[in-house]
Write a structure and sequence with these properties.
Subcellular location: Cell outer membrane
Helix content: under 10%
Structural class: mainly beta
Largest sheet: 22 strands, antiparallel, barrel
Membrane topology: Multi-pass membrane protein
Number of helices: 1
Number of strands: 42
Protein name: TonB-dependent receptor
Pfam family, one: Plug
Family: Belongs to the TonB-dependent receptor family.
Shape: globular
Distance between the termini: 61 Å
């Protein structure tokens, strides 16, 4: 239960002012990126991004952006990692999941959504090949044969999709090239019998048509097993994850092109393992005797996900304007069942042996659920026009339409009950969303040094929602219909201190449409609703090439405030969520991106961020873990925050946002040296994040420890071949990174060390 009075509490806004001084280095360069000469030996390549829907030098774009591509992506995915490998690889970016390889949850500058319902919206937008991926089930599509990843921090509402008040992560696949035959194939094997295959081939069909076929297959055997006597053979955490992308480019004239894209994913594996009784009471340490490879359960754990999609991107270049039409269709079919109580036995279970040995120290109630997406479809259409004249004024204008229709089933099971799973209890949700928007932006070159940009977007959202609960009788359906509108805007500017140094500043607003949720638990339960959230963001920074372009720096400071922030409160006792709004949330921080060619043999990147978030609502409180002492008189966790007005509640005023570490950092170093007719190389990468609250409230057990994870890849290249050995999480550090807030200290741990070898051939 969550209670919020009508009183509005205000506190003074704390502004974080950070002054950073960096040496300015002037070098010879042309005014326009297109006219820049090719990099000389030792210089960094010019990075071209499409953050403003045009191809531009990243230095000229007035916002905080990080890009990832090429070898760095190859290194980070070498062990068969899913999209969560991006977490911490860009300042202020965090990614996690309570479902495993599906349903990733994204956070930028502390803003995200911990909701685990299948219709949960997120304030971080995901755009793949110009198509918005709204459903959480679409956002985990494997990353392969990708040309570039762009992480755009801050609100992006005026040009991209929908629901992006925190930022956008943008993926651009490698596209077909007419008149060129090329490709690559990568084969990798690793511990736990991992087998990873990836490849692509570009096929020139004619002088006007080309196709590109890209495939990936990631496989691993089970690496966690049940040690419970008489429980039969149960094994977990294996998977088969296959994905395909087919693109066809048709360019009959120099002025017109059509790019068709068909893609699909078929994943079969395990859901996240919720492990009961693994946290020491009063701390966030794992219990003595914890074994990663052992998981005793009386329930079923399985997960299947199939997604399919297609898009058509048309472009027509006229004398003074370019016209775009982008049509997209996506669908998903999902089934995930897990033993959420994290072990075996019911309330009568007695401790037997060491605290972790059989995971039955205390299971207060049976919670075994399945989340099913039997129906999902998404259709999007965008029409966009952009100027191509050479004058000081450039513009973009467009229309965007979004339609999503989904059904969600949440099914309760009890493997200890006779007849299970016959006649299970379940809840069903139906949601139909229609949205349209008109948007535009203006770019004006005031002088050779000063450029201004402004954007405006009008959005109309309509949602029809219904939920019902089926047990021996039926409750519902209970309906909610809502229509909301919003006008968002942004203004920014770039000032060139020199040919190599730009200052930028940006003010932007963002918007996330209202949310509904109806994972009904019991016939008396009702759906919850959260009003739209709106954000106002400020940021300023510097982008600079250094040392004759052998190094590049981007640094920024930011501050934002969110009105009616959508949050997700757990029940404190059962596997339930409730949507709430906080009056206000603030955030401020600093971000840094740096890369350099230290020598002909050494290349380095360094990134970091500080994010300070705070919930500001003196009347908002939630239930804490366990809600009340369980039947054995033991409360599950140790709350540390300010007590609420009722027993086992906690006030949220002053708490940080959940899953929002204050400090993050990343570092890579590549060394190479010529050997014989090839090159020996070694690439190490490291990511750090500080502690964070797993939930809205604070508790000793549910405050994640800080974490450092590193990787290493070493190999040899010659001609068109490469062979390498790799290790991910090379320190093999395993700790709790998430939890279920029942009263039996159930946790989720990060992945252990993975090892393997790879071979790659290009042609």
């Amino acid at each position: 239960m969550t209670i919020k009075s009508k009183q509005f509490a205000t506190r003074s806004l704390i502004a974080l002012a950070v002054a950073s001084a960096f040496p300015l280095h002037a070098a010879m360069a042309q005014d326009k990126p297109a006219a820049e000469a090719r990099p000389q030996a030792g210089q960094l390549e010019t990075v071209i991004v499409t953050a403003q829907r045009r191809s531009e030098n990243i230095k000229d774009v007035p916002m905080a952006i990080t890009t990832l591509k090429g070898e760095k992506l190859d290194v980070l995915t070498s062990g068969g990692q899913d999209i969560r490998f991006l977490s911490g690889r860009s300042p202020s970016l965090n990614i996690e999941s309570d479902y495993g390889r599906s349903f990733p949850r994204f956070y930028i500058r502390g803003q995200g959504n911990t909701d685990f319902d299948l219709n949960a919206s997120q304030p971080v937008g995901l755009v793949v090949d110009d198509i918005v991926q709204e459903s959480p089930m679409l956002k985990g599509f494997p990353v392969f044969d990708v040309d570039q990843v762009e992480v755009l921090r801050g609100p992006q509402g005026t040009l991209f999709g929908r629901n992006s008040p925190a930022g956008v992560i943008k993926f651009d696949s490698a596209k077909p090239v007419i008149g060129k035959q090329e490709g690559y194939a990568t084969v990798g094997i690793g511990n736990y019998r991992a087998r990873n295959l990836e490849g692509a081939i570009n096929l020139p069909i004619s002088d006007t048509v080309a196709a590109r076929v890209s495939v990936q297959s990631q496989n691993r055997d089970d690496r966690v097993h049940s040690g419970r006597p008489g429980n039969g053979t149960k094994s977990f955490e294996g998977y088969h994850d296959d994905a395909l992308r087919l693109q066809v480019l048709v360019k009959p004239t120099s002025a017109f092109s059509a790019l068709f894209n068909v893609h699909a994913r078929d994943m079969d594996g395990s859901a996240t393992l919720f492990r009961s009784n693994i946290l020491k009471k009063g701390s966030n340490e794992l219990v003595d005797g914890f074994e990663y490879s052992r998981y005793d359960t009386d329930g079923v754990n399985e997960q299947r996900l199939k997604t399919e999609g297609a898009s058509m991107r048309l472009r027509l270049d006229l004398s003074s304007v370019t016209l775009h039409s982008i049509t997209g269709y996506e669908s998903a079919d999902f089934y995930s069942r897990a033993d959420v109580d994290g072990g075996y036995g019911a309330v009568y279970a007695q401790p037997m042996g060491p605290s972790y040995a059989n995971q039955a120290a205390f299971i207060p109630f049976v919670v075994e659920t399945a989340d099913v997406l039997p129906k999902h479809r998404q259709f999007t259409q965008e029409f966009r026009a952009e100027s191509v004249n050479s004058g000081p004024l450039q513009w973009i204008a467009g229309l965007f339409y979004f339609n999503e229709d989904i059904q969600i089933d949440s099914i309760s099971f009890d493997s200890l009950a006779p007849g299970n799973p016959l006649n299970p209890f379940y809840a069903t949700q139906f949601q139909d969303t229609k949205s349209w928007a008109a948007f535009g932006s203006l770019n004006y070159t005031v002088s050779d040094k000063f450029k201004l940009r402004g954007g405006l977007r009008y959005t109309n959202d309509k949602k029809n929602f219904a939920a019902k609960r089926v047990e021996l009788t039926t409750a519902g359906p209970f309906g909610i219909s809502n229509e909301s509108t919003n006008v968002s805007w942004d203004m920014s500017g770039t000032y060139a201190l020199s040919a190599d140094s730009n200052l930028f500043a940006r003010v932007a607003t963002g918007y996330r449409a209202p949310s509904m949720q109806g994972r009904l638990n019991g016939l008396a339960d009702r759906p919850s609703f959260a009003e739209a959230e709106k954000v106002l963001s400020y940021e300023a920074g510097i982008k600079q090439d250094l040392f004759n372009r052998r190094a590049r720096l981007s640094a920024s400071v930011f501050q934002y405030r969110v009105k009616d922030k959508q949050l997700t409160a757990g029940s404190g006792q059962i596997n339930m969520n409730q949507l709430i709004n906080a009056d206000r949330v603030t955030g401020q921080g600093v971000e840094l991106d740096f890369q350099a060619n230290l020598s002909d043999a050494l290349r380095m990147t360094l990134g970091g961020s500080y994010n300070n978030t705070e919930i500001k609502d003196s009347d908002l409180f939630v239930q804490t873990c366990g809600n009340e002492p369980n039947t054995k008189g033991v409360n599950g966790c140790t709350p540390t925050g300010v007590a609420g007005p009722f027993a086992y509640t906690q006030k949220l005023n002053g708490n940080p946002l959940p899953r929002a570490p204050k400090w993050q950092g990343n570092f890579t170093l590549r060394y190479s040296v010529p050997v014989a007719d090839g090159e020996f190389f070694a690439y190490t990468d490291w990511a750090y994040r500080s502690t964070y609250n797993m939930f809205l409230y604070e508790a000793k057990e549910y405050k994640a420890k800080s974490l450092v994870e590193g990787g290493l890849r070493m190999g040899y290249k010659w001609d068109n071949y490469e062979v390498a050995a790799f290790a991910r999480n090379i320190t093999d550090k395993v700790q709790s990174v998430g939890a279920i807030d029942f009263d039996n200290l159930t946790g989720i741990v990060n992945e252990p060390r993975t090892l393997g070898v790879q071979m790659k051939a290009t042609f």
